[in-house]
Every structure is written in structure tokens, then in C-alpha cells.
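Journal club prep — side note

Before the paper discussion, L.F. wants everyone to see what a predicted structure for a comparable chain looks like in C-alpha cell form. Sequence:
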Amino acid sequence: MPDLTTKTGDVKAIIRRLQDSFNETLEVLYDLPQDYLQQPCGHGCARGGTARDLLIHNIIHEKQHTGQVWSVRDQLQLLPGWGNQDLPALLADYYTSRAQLIAALFGLAGDQLDTKPKDGGWTIRETVEHVLHCDRDSIDALHAEFRQTAGAVASAPRRSC
């Protein structure tokens, strides 16, 4: 069986770079005052416009290059699901779901995380903690099962023909 760690190491590294870079972006932008978006921006990508124009450009730029990556994958016949490769499609959907959860948190004040909804259900913080706990618990269990199975297969006596 080929070593998937070396095959996926570069991909995981570039995903990590994208995540880290976006976390840096969030650190800068999250607490930016709303009215600052109307201020002139000197960066060339704002095209003589405002800070809002720069952010809109960056969003569209990201979408354009995302399309470019999908186009290359299409040309290489590497679209999700081709060749029964379900894991990449599942990971993409999983990541998108997490990104949507993160996006639902933008704009909230800290105290709003702990405000009980009118129906008496979980707070936003409790919901996120539940997601984090269930994710870690289930994925850690899956990983342990995989390691146990892989170890059992590796230690099984080999038969020769």
C-alpha cells in the first residue's frame, strides 16, 4: 500500500498556509470599524477606491483563483468523485461546513455567544463547544480504529503462494 502521508504532505501544508494566512487576515479585519470601509485605499487592487472596494476585489480574486484550481482539476480529471475517490469530496464538504459555521460567528459580540435563545435551547457558545467536542471525539475514535486496523493488518502473518 502506498504511503499516503508523503502524497498528501504538500497538500496539507498548502492548506495550512491558506488557513494561517486567512487567520492573519481575520486578525486585521475583524475589529475594523464599519465606517473605515468607506475610507480611500491606496492599494492598487482597490483601483482608486475605498477599503470596501479592496475587500470586494480580494473576495472576487479568491473566487477567480478557486475557479482556476477547479479548472485545472477538471483538465486533469481530478474532480471529486471521479475514480470513486470519495474522501476528497467528503473533506471538501466537511471543510465547507466548518467554514459556514465560522462565517455564522462573524459580527457577534462576545456576550451574544452566551445569550440563551427564546426557545431555551443551547447558546451559540454551547453549540460550538458541542461541535468541537463531537468532532474531536469522533475523529479521534476513527483515527484510533484506523491505527488499530492498520496495525493488525501489518502484524498479520503473511502467507506465501
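L.F.'s comment for the group: The helical segments are 4-29, 51-75, 86-103, 124-155. Keep this in mind when we get to the figures.
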